[in-house]
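Internal tracking record. Fields below are filled automatically when a chain is submitted to the structure queue. Please do not edit lines marked as system-generated. If the sequence contains nonstandard residues, flag them in the REMARKS field before resubmitting.
Queue: standard
Priority: normal
Entity type: single polypeptide chain
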Amino acid sequence: MSDHPFAPADDTPALLDAAMDAFAAESPALPLAVAFSGGADSTALLLACAARWPGQVHAWHVHHGLQAAADDFERHCVALCARLGVPLQVRRVDARPLAGQSPEDAARRHRYAAFDGLALASTADDAIKTVVIAQHADDQVETILLALSRGAGLPGLAAMPARWQRGETAYVRPLLAVPGGAIRAWLRLRGEAWVEDPTNNEWRHPRNRIRAGLLPALQRAFPAYRTTFARSAAHAAEAQRLLNEVAAQDLAAAGCPPRLAVLQALSAPRRANVLRHWLAAVHGQTASAAQLAELQSQVMAARTRGHRIQLKVGSGHVQRRGDSLYWQAGNPPPTDTAPPTR
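SYSTEM-GENERATED OUTPUT FOLLOWS
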C-alpha cells in the first residue's frame, strides 16, 4: 500500500519500469533534464533516467519561495544529485500569485518560465534536448476532475499531454500512465527516500480534496478508472485538434484581424470556435464563457458602421476598427473618448 496520505492503493512497482521501457523505446533526444522537485515522483524519475542514460542526465530544481520546507526540498535534491553524479541547476523564483490568480497556476507559470530559461542557458555543446516531467496517472485524473468541476471545455478535459514542444525543447511526461502508489512502491523497493510536501495534507487545496475524497471512492467503484479517464482525455484532445484545424481554416478566410462580415456568415458554434482560436493563437488570451458570448452578440449586432465594439477580454480588450476586430492590451478607453469605428 502507498504511504502517501491520500493515494489509492495500486503499488505495482513494475509499472514504472514498463513506462520507462516505453519511453526509452522512443529514443528521446539526449541529453535530457529531469524537472526535479525532490518529491517521490520526480525522485523516482531521476533515478530511473540516471540508470538508463548515465552521463546524459541533468536535474533542474525550482525553488518557489513559498514555504519554509522548500529549503529542505533543495537540500534533498543537492544530496541525491551529488550521490548520483548528476549535474543539478537550481532556479529560485518568487511564485506568489497575483491578485485573482490561483497559487497552483502562479507556481506552474513560474516553474515553466524557469525551465525555458534553463533550456536557453544550456551550452551549445551540452544543450538540453528533452525535459521530462514526473506527473503520473493520479495527477491526470485529478486534472480531469478539476476541469469538470470548473465546467471546462475540451482543452481542459483533454488534461495533460504526454508530449509537447516549447521552442526547441521537447517536454515529455513518461509516467503519465503510472499510478502514484506504484511510484512510491518502486522507491521503497530500492530503499530510496524522498521529501513529502507538507501542503499535501491541507484540504484547502482542491487537488488534495480530490485525492482524499474522490480517488479512493473511484478505486472501489471503478478499479480501471485511470485507464478509462485517460481514454476520455485522449478523445477530448483529438476533438480539440480537429476544432483547431477548422478554426485555423476559418481564421485564414476571415483574415487577421478577422473581418466582421466573414464572422457573421458562420454558424454560432463555428464563430465561437474561430474567435476563441484567434484570441488564443494570435494574442495568447483566453476569453471567459461570458466574454465570448458577449463578443459573439456584439459581432452579430455590428451590421452598421456606427456600431461600436469595446469589450474587455483577458488582459486587454477587443474593439472594432472599420470592418474588422482588433485585440489590444490594457483597459479600453472611456466610452466617450473611444476612437471612431471608421
